[in-house]
UniProtKB/TrEMBL annotation:
<dbReference type="GO" id="GO:0006790">
    <property type="term" value="P:sulfur compound metabolic process"/>
</dbReference>
<dbReference type="GO" id="GO:0043546">
    <property type="term" value="F:molybdopterin cofactor binding"/>
</dbReference>
<dbReference type="InterPro" id="IPR014756">
    <property type="entry name" value="Ig_E-set"/>
</dbReference>
<dbReference type="InterPro" id="IPR036374">
    <property type="entry name" value="OxRdtase_Mopterin-bd_sf"/>
</dbReference>
<dbReference type="GO" id="GO:0008482">
    <property type="term" value="F:sulfite oxidase activity"/>
</dbReference>
<keyword id="KW-0479">Metal-binding</keyword>
<feature type="domain" description="Moybdenum cofactor oxidoreductase dimerisation">
    <location>
        <begin position="234"/>
        <end position="350"/>
    </location>
</feature>
<dbReference type="GO" id="GO:0020037">
    <property type="term" value="F:heme binding"/>
</dbReference>
<keyword id="KW-0500">Molybdenum</keyword>
<protein>
    <submittedName>
        <fullName>DMSO/TMAO reductase YedYZ molybdopterin-dependent catalytic subunit</fullName>
    </submittedName>
</protein>
<dbReference type="InterPro" id="IPR005066">
    <property type="entry name" value="MoCF_OxRdtse_dimer"/>
</dbReference>
<dbReference type="Pfam" id="PF00174">
    <property type="entry name" value="Oxidored_molyb"/>
</dbReference>
<dbReference type="Pfam" id="PF03404">
    <property type="entry name" value="Mo-co_dimer"/>
</dbReference>
<feature type="domain" description="Oxidoreductase molybdopterin-binding">
    <location>
        <begin position="43"/>
        <end position="213"/>
    </location>
</feature>
<dbReference type="InterPro" id="IPR008335">
    <property type="entry name" value="Mopterin_OxRdtase_euk"/>
</dbReference>
<dbReference type="InterPro" id="IPR000572">
    <property type="entry name" value="OxRdtase_Mopterin-bd_dom"/>
</dbReference>
<dbReference type="GO" id="GO:0030151">
    <property type="term" value="F:molybdenum ion binding"/>
</dbReference>
Length: 351
C-alpha cells in the first residue's frame, strides 16, 4: 500500500494547516496539495469575472486591472519559499499564545506574475508617497477590538519598488489555487509571508505609516512580556535551517546515516551549514546543493554520518548566510512568537 504524507490541521475555521515538510526532502518545489495554509479569517467569496485590482491614493492615474490585462504584461517568475512569521512558535520558552506551529508553516513554490513596480509606474506615484497598502478580500472580526477588518498590510516604497516584488497570478505553472490567494497574490521575496497578501483586490498609496491591526498590532516583535518598549516590525526572514531527516527521537541501526535538510534566509543566500552529532562539541560542514540559479530559494544540504557506535545522540544544524548572519543557539523571545530561528536540534538513538 502506498503511503502519502498529509497536512496537519491546527484549526478548521479559519483553516490553518501545516505542511509535512519533513517528508518532502527531495522536492525543491512543493506539490500544491502539501503547501501550508495560514488564514486569519474564513475564505472570501469571490466572483472571478468581476474581480478587478484597483490602485488609488497618492497616484496621478488611479487605475484598475483585470486578471487578463495583467497576464499580457511582462512577467517574472522565481522559486520562493513562503514562511509564516510564527513558524516553530511551539519552541519558544516560555510559551506564547498563537498557532503552535512546529516546522511546517512554510513551503516553497514557483511564483509567476507582474513586477509591482510596473503597476505602480502605470499609476504614476506622487512625490509624497511613503507606503503602499495592500488589501485582500478576506475579512472578519478580531478578538482584541470591535468591528470587521479586511486583511491588509503595507510596504515601504523602496520594498514595493523592488524589481522582484510581484503581483502573482500563477503558482507552479498553474493559476494560483483559491486557498492560496486566487486570482492575485502579492509576493514579497525575503520577507515573512504575512506580507504576501492573498486575494489582492486593492492597492492604496499613502503618505504616512499604515496603522491597520495586522501592521501595527500583529507582526510586531515585542521583546518584553508586559511592555511595548523596543518593539519593531517583523519584516526580513531570519537565517534558519531545518533537519528533515532523521526525525526527532527516532531510532536507527548502526551504519551510514545521511542527515538531510534545508536552510534559508531573507537576506542574501546560504553560504554554510554546519552539523554537530555530539550536541555542539564539534562541528563539520554539510554539503550544499547549488542554488545559483534561484536567488530566493532555500538551499538543500546533506551530511554523511558514520554512526557505528550505539547510544543516544543530539544532532545540531547551524546555517550562515552571505550577509554574515548565523543562527543563534537561542532565538529572540518575543511575546507573539515570531521569527524563531534557533540552532536546530534532533535527538536520535543508534542501536
Amino acid at each position: 500500500m502506498e503511503i502519502h504524507p498529509y497536512l496537519t490541521t491546527k484549526t478548521l475555521v479559519p483553516e490553518n494547516q501545516e505542511s509535512p515538510i519533513h517528508f518532502l526532502r527531495s522536492q525543491k518545489i512543493f506539490p500544491l496539495p502539501y503547501f501550508y495554509r495560514r488564514n486569519h479569517f474564513s475564505y472570501p467569496f469571490l466572483l472571478p469575472n468581476l474581480y478587478y485590482l484597483t490602485i488609488y491614493g497618492l497616484v496621478h492615474h488611479p487605475s484598475y486591472f483585470h486578471l487578463e490585462q495583467l497576464k499580457l504584461m511582462p512577467s517574472k517568475s522565481f522559486v520562493i519559499p513562503l514562511e509564516c512569521a510564527g513558524n516553530q512558535r511551539d519552541k519558544f520558552i516560555p510559551k506564547v499564545f498563537g498557532e503552535q506551529w512546529k516546522g511546517g508553516a512554510m513551503s516553497q513554490a514557483e511564483w509567476k506574475g507582474v513586477p509591482l513596480k510596473d503597476i505602480l509606474s502605470k499609476a504614476c506615484l506622487q512625490k509624497d508617497a511613503k507606503e503602499v497598502v495592500f488589501i485582500g478580500a478576506d475579512c472578519g472580526r478580531r478578538t482584541d477590538t470591535v468591528g470587521v477588518f479586511y486583511y491588509a498590510r503595507s510596504l515601504p516604497i523602496a520594498k514595493a519598488l523592488h524589481p522582484d516584488t510581484m503581483i502573482a497570478y500563477e503558482c507552479n505553472g498553474q493559476p494560483i489555487p483559491f486557498k492560496h490567494g486566487y486570482p492575485l497574490r502579492l509576493i514579497v521575496p525575503g520577507w515573512y509571508a504575512m506580507a504576501s497578501v492573498k486575494w489582492l483586490q486593492q492597492i492604496i498609496v499613502i503618505d504616512q505609516p499604515f496603522t491597520g491591526p495586522f501592521q501595527a498590532v500583529d507582526y510586531i516583535y515585542y521583546p518584553h512580556k508586559n511592555s511595548d518598549a523596543n518593539k519593531k516590525p517583523v519584516t526580513t526572514i531570519n537565517v534558519n535551517s531545518l533537519i528533515q531527516f532523521p526525525l526527532d527521537f527516532s531510532i536507527h541501526d548502526t551504519g551510514t546515516i545521511v542527515i538531510e535538510g534545508i536552510a534559508w534566509t531573507g537576506n542574501g543566500v546560504i553560504t554554510q551549514v554546519e552539523i554537530s552529532v555530539d550536541n555542539g562539541e564539534t562541528w563539520k560542514e554539510a554539503t550544499l546543493a547549488s542554488q545559483h540559479d534561484e536567488p530566493y530559494a532555500w538551499t538543500q544540504w546533506s551530511f554523511v554520518w558514520e554512526a557505528y557506535e550505539k547510544g543516544e545522540y543530539i544532532i545540531l544544524a547551524k546555517a550562515t548566510d552571505s550577509s554574515g548572519r548565523t543562527q543563534p543557539f537561542a532565538a529572540m523571545w518575543n511575546r507573539k512568537g515570531y521569527g524563531y530561528n534557533a540552532v536546530q536540534k534532533v535527538h536520535v538513538k543508534i542501536e
